[in-house]
Known about the structure:
By secondary structure, the protein is of the alpha/beta class. It folds into two domains: 36-92, Sun protein, domain 3 (Alpha-Beta Plaits, 2-Layer Sandwich), CATH 3.30.70.1170; 95-287, Rossmann fold (3-Layer(aba) Sandwich). The chain is built from eleven helices and twelve strands. It has helices at residues 9-18, 23-31, 47-56, 83-86, 95-104, 121-129, 145-154, 198-201, 204-221, 244-251, 272-275, and strands at residues 36-40, 61-64, 70-74, 90-92, 111-115, 135-140, 159-163, 177-183, 225-235, 257-260, 268-270, 280-287. The strands form two sheets. Strands 5, 6, 7, 8, 9, 10, 11 and 12 form an eight-stranded mixed sheet that branches. A four-stranded antiparallel sheet has the order 2-3-1-4, covered by helices on one side. The radius of gyration is 19 Å and the shape is globular. The chain starts with 8 loop residues before the first helix and ends with a strand.
Amino acid sequence: PEIQYSLPSWFVKRWKKRLPGEWDDFFSANNRVPPLSIRVNTLKITTYELKKILLQEGVGKIEEGRWHDVLKIYGYPYIKDLRSYKMGYFTVQDEGAMWVSHVLSPNPGETVLDLCSSPGGKAFHIATLMSNKGLVYAVDIKDDVLIKETKERLGIDIIKPIRFDLRKEMKDFYQKADKVLLDAPCTGLGTMRRRPELKWKRSEKDIYRMSDLQKLLIKNAVKYVKTGGTLVYSVCTLEGEEGEDVVKYLLTLSPNYELSPIDGKPYLYLYPHIYDTDGFFIAKIKVK
């Protein structure tokens, strides 16, 4: 399989053990070129109207996506050159990344923290789901130039960027947020359909190293959730050490942290061969 699917042997070994009977489909899916998913900026335009405009702009093949505000585009690589993009009618985002914000399910008027936010795709989705009403703090160690530019393009003004190293605690934010999203730094191995070079740049050591960082980040993140609020933890990788192990560690810290099922399951694993998305792990934790 290593040669057939052009995958490192350590990765093949892990996943043959994890998905007996399915690994063949999983490896194949990771080698397929994914469609380009776009999320309609419903604050400016409807999906129906945007689809008509895209066809007029020369986009040949368009399919509807999983949600009412998603379109899938095929064979048009110059999407950001389109006038409709520059007008802020849509943004490019994988359906797996969109799923994260749907699990968070923010409401208009709430205070939301989006941690490790850069480049801001989920923050903008959250703000759109909130009808641009409330407050979204987009926190990241990186500079917020891109967020400022995108705010202008999309016409969203409830996002407040904060530059901060989240390995430290944001003491001013203790129990301040209705909802917190921690989309943690990770190995990114779920995105190899788009970034095939990653599989050769990562090793098993990276998985364990990232897991240690993720545990520190989630321990801090949960402190910003109000009593009765929600923390969503997500990573664009399917490795257990970066997903379930991190959440199980958090649950040992306090009896007030409780796993909320997603679609009747304790966790959501978005496998490329099942959902045709990037590989994501998503968990939802209630703070009592």
